[in-house]
Amino acid sequence: MQSTVEYDSNGSIKVSKPNRGQTILKWLIIGSAIFTVVGFFLMDYTGLDLTQAIPMTIDNLGQMFLSPSLNNTTWSNALWQVAVTLSLGFLATILGAIISLFLAFGTAVNLSKPWLSNTIKAFITVIRAVPTVLWVLIFAIAAGLGSVAAVIGMIFHSVAYLVKAYSEAFEEVDEGKIEALRASGASYGHILFQVIVPQTKSYLISWTFLRFEINFGVAVAMGAAAGAGGIGYELFMSSSFYYDMQEVGAITLIILVVAIILELIANRLKVSA
Amino acid sequence: MAVDNKLKEEQKTKTDFNKKATDDVLISFDEDPEVTGETVEVASKEEVKQMPVIMSIENLNKEYSKGKTVLKDVNFDIKKGELLSIIGPSGAGKSTLLRSINRMIEPTSGKIDFDNKNITKIKGKELRKMRTNIGMIFQHYNLVDRLSVFENVLHGTLGYKNSIQGIFSMYTESEKEEALDIITELGIQDHIYKRCDELSGGQKQRVGIARALVQKPKIILCDEPIASLDPSSSRIIMEHLRKICNEKGITVIVNLHQVDVAKNYSDRIIGLNSGEVVFNGHPNEINKEVIQKIYGTDFDDLIME
Questions:
Q1: A190 touches chain B (CB under 8 A)
Q2: pTM exceeds 0.90 for this model
Q3: CATH number of residue A162's parent domain
Q4: Residues spanned by the domain of A209
Q5: Which residue of B has its CA nearest to A176?
């Protein structure tokens, strides 16, 4: 009994013995906490008066959200720009979904060869590691800054995301169902579209719609960052060009409402699928 | 001394256990009328002998990894239009044997002749064509739950279709009518547009049988078709299989756990133990010694562990 128990430096009995990974994780968390605190002290606070800054921030937020109004644009234009942003997101999602479906067939381990699966996974990881904005800027070299580059960049990330989601759904399909069709003489293509797709349809729809919601948000950002147009560009203009807090608030609220509507549609789809 | 006593006691429990295990099988050997139903008419030994051979299996061996043999030198003929049961303890290789017949599992060595054609080496299109001639039904039904009963039954025709026709569900009217006839025969016509996950186990298995029949097969393989079913559904399924065999002349090969069911419905029984055929004969020839031979050595293995 004595030999199996370990004591810590204080002489009390240890109740757990963390392994290497847990120890490393513990020191990582402690280390980043220290750096965060030290970072605050090293920042340059010249000219910042918190007693003044905090009420001003609250005042700005109040202007934005409590008295929103469209001063430099019209309602019809704002809604039209929302439609443009939605279209950008939709286009990127639908093209990404089609590409992802076929790549996911190659990625799912129960439908594919290990070498093919690993190759696609490696490729996908590289795409995911680079932020969307960078992909857009890379394609802007060829397509010019604008909606084309933005959509291509968004497709890249949509594919990286959806291939993972789809292939994991495919891997959940019961091996027996595949076996049953294989035993009846059905071909590989038949199995994909008569077993795998119908069996995972509700997952495919809900993942794709979730990606559409994300792409809508990304499209807003791309409007500002890559000149793709849409409501994001309006937001960029009213904040950086006109410095119009009320309009920034109005546009933010419009985007919020659209996001909520999308969420509601997503829930409906999930139930009916 | 104490150790000695303990050993003795252990030995006694072992023998008791051994006896109990044997009794279990023998109890199931007594007929349970709810499962077996009324005695059905099966072919006599002479009649089976006169049936033409549809498939012959010669020196079939299967090793999963080196030294782990599942099938050892299996030899037997399958007759056209018989209902053949394969019985044996868990892990005897029943499933492997069944899946070797349609090459879902590749045998290590041996030869399988189907319709006077060696099918052990065929590939690609030829293999697919061979599989359309062999239907298969499963313990867990293996239906696509989210599709309708009708769609699942029509999956049986995919083996005859090219990729485009299959992917876009292009079934001809005559295929649909034929499928409907089979569905009606099996008594599930009220459920054709229901999704398969709304059905009971017995109904699902009938959909499975319909899917196999739509293939217009010469042989139907059944892997534990009633192992997940209640007694009355089991009886319905076994009666359908018997009917298919009698009326359509399709050979049915069934893997079974229940000796009494095998005895009641089959024309011939093959007993498998540790990958070897230890019994091949008429159901009437099954007696306690044969049961012991099929299930017996397995008990010893159980005790040794």
A1: yes
A2: no
A3: 1.10.3720.10
A4: 72-272
A5: B142
